[in-house]
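User: Second chain of the day. Same drill as before.
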Amino acid sequence: KYNKTTSYMSGAYGLSIYFPYYNMDYANMVSDVYDSIGMEPSYASCVKKFAATEMSGQYISGGSSNPFNSLFGIFGSGDYGSSYYYGNDTGSSYSESSVYDMLGSLLGGDTQSFSGYDSSDFGFFRGSFDQEKTAEFIAKNQFLESNLEWKTGKNKVPVITLPEDQWDLVTDLSLNMFIDDGEGFIDLGLDNVFTFEGDDMYADMSGAWLGLNGQIMPYYHSDTYENGDEYTITGYAPCLLNGVRSKLIIVFDNAHPEGYVAGAVADYSLESSVPEGATAKSTLGLNKGDRIQFVCDYYDYDYNYDDSYKFGNEITVDENLKVSDVTLDNLDTVITYRFTDIYQDEFWLPKIVPSDFE
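Assistant: Same format as last time:
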């Protein structure tokens, strides 16, 4: 019916449909809209059941939504002085009967596990799913955070080993790097960098991160598209572009394996005057003389997310914007990994300080 691709969105093949997979904030609103406009009942029911199953899985698994546990060592004991500490800290899976009972509590209005929500946000939930079938599915498909424990691998490099059926429940895996500046942690972002040997994932001890014109930049991987031997990897760097909060689009593909700057999009996420959930659809080209100032999140030693701050020196756009790896040899860095399961629950591994292994 309709098709549009861009330089950094090559895998778009036509009309899209909405599933509340990455963000449940709008599931209830969309459910109400579907009902009000007479959407085909079977389709609306499918979306509601999908959202209800995802929400149920998040309620049971009890992951995290930030790296605090990892950064500040709020874990039990294990290799490198840390192990795990999440909602299901029993170290084993919940039985089907236990899941059934917990879903009963959720059905009864116990939404306290969902920060920022109340029972009115989940109107779509009641009557949208079969409690028995959902309990059976979740009991058979639980990502066990107790497996997220570093062991010592080859050459004393930290390694994570998961059973194959647990890897099947991982939908996203990202390296999260921070700079420890002596007062807190500068978040450099999330990248799809990892090394596997069989079911073993080895920590990246290279001490390298993406940079622009030789300067470190925050970077967040957003999408990987593969078609045979062709690939397109897309990410972005939070920045101020000529003073306006934006996302600098970074693309890696067959023709540009080292990466290039594809343009920028406005970042509406912090604009109070823009409707909630709005996203920029068009890419802005960069012009000579444009000013790029990177922006990073910051976590202080008092266990607070402080704010987003300007990071590094301002870059003036010229003909030679170059993306490359930058080694952070002279900085104190910390790495962790973020695992995301099929319910979009997130789990951060215990942090590793690469300098401890030199």
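Residues 186 and 298 are 5 Å apart (CA to CA).

User: Great, on to the next one.
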